Amino acid sequence: MITIKSEREIELMREAGRLVARVLDMLENEIRPGISTKRLDELAEQFIRDHNAVPSFLNYVPKGESGVTPYPATLCVSINEEVVHGVPSTKRIIHEGEIVSVDCGVYKSGYHGDSARTYIIGEVDPAVRQLVDVTRECLDLGIEQAVEGNRLHDISAAIEKHARSFGYSVIENMVGHGIGSELHEEPAVPNYGRPHTGVKLRSGMTLAIEPMIALGRSRRAVSKRGAWAAVTEDGSYSAHFEHTIAIGKAQAEILTK
């Protein structure tokens, strides 16, 4: 069931969203060659708890899935060909020339905020830099479609059209989602689709829109058995950006800005 949030609920989501943005801003000043992904995770968790909130991802188990190991970290830190759900580790050190996608969720006052950014570490190949730039643009274009009266897949189609115009692949088995008092709510928000299809958008709907775009031909992210991290099928680089937004009458409000 898709929930319509009241203004009070959206205000609480603004609080959570602003904190997520502050975490990612803080990490932008810390992420550099030689730092471990575990250290980034420690910094993020401490920052969140210092602001009277809880990490959304830590110990998370998808609803309805039994036998799944709870997610063991505050952040998802995914490097190069990792699309999503890279688990922080003291052994995973960030190097010059990599791209690092950091996904963070915060639970505060009963509501979640969820956002992701891809950081470029030093000098990278121009084709990789363009991938990151275009993925960010895909998010912006998807958000432009998130207005009352449009259909859900207008968001999806805008993302797909822009990505494919550069010859990139859209990761089809990883999607955005509704968000609110639960981290993952209905509806699923795919990054591909036909315009003018899907549920009608209404003011008060809150969504996490998150394009995941690959440089190569991979259309799926795949995981080894028991592993959280999902990588591109062909080993090509992937970028990821995400905002939590509220549908508006004239334009969406970005809650994680």
From TrEMBL:
Reaction(s) catalysed by this chain's protein: Release of N-terminal amino acids, preferentially methionine, from peptides and arylamides
Gene Ontology cellular component annotations, sorted alphabetically: cytosol
Enzyme class: hydrolase
List of residues binding a divalent metal cation 2: 114, 177, 210, 242
Gene Ontology terms for molecular function: initiator methionyl aminopeptidase activity; metal ion binding; metalloaminopeptidase activity
Record-linked InterPro entries: Creatinase/aminopeptidase-like (IPR036005), Pept_M24 (IPR000994), Pept_M24_MAP (IPR001714), Pept_M24A_MAP1 (IPR002467)
Family designation: Belongs to the peptidase M24A family. Methionine aminopeptidase type 1 subfamily.
Name of the protein this chain belongs to: Methionine aminopeptidase
Organism for this UniProt entry: Chlorobaculum tepidum (strain ATCC 49652 / DSM 12025 / NBRC 103806 / TLS) (Chlorobium tepidum)
Gene: map
